[in-house]
Specification:
about 200 residues; mainly alpha; 7 helices; about 0% strand
Amino acid sequence: KAALQWWRDARRAYPRFSHSPLHAGRRSTSSTPLQMLTARAYSRSMAAVCISFTTGDLICQSIEAGSVSSEKKLGRTAQFAAVGGCILGPASHTLEFLLERFMPGTSALPIAKKVAARVVVSPLFLSLNFGSLALLRGQDAIAAIRTRVLPAWQTGCLFWPFVAALTYRYVPLPARPAAGAAVGVVWGSFLSWVAHRRLPEP
């Protein structure tokens, strides 16, 4: 009941992001997206991504070991969570603000534009992820970016556009970080696997 009430409050607070046909595709003079530029909003996104990456890495380690109860490398998890929460969290939050600020609406055209924009900028986010992890481990960041970004981007293009389209169509703006983080557990597991597999010899 509490979750349902929170959803209703969010829909009332951000009516133009409702999937109701009354609001779909209509540009509003409201400055609602600007409410994302607060410390509280950023903190929520950072926490959501941090939790998502932590869970994703732990799942990845369990799959690699073949057992949920296997001993985990907590240092690896801490590094992955730090990069997710401190770097990708704020970056993703800022991207969502810019997309909603300049491409508002929940009809087909603005959704398509936002999804296309995410596909275009995702290599930058992947570079931040793999490069930062490599630096934390004392590895060659350039080599990590060169060998890992393209395969991860190709896989992401099969996953995120569909998820993003549903999110932009049905999820109110304030609920998007949490929704993205929930789905991102699967993506975080994949990124952890890509980030920690052995690089091919040059």
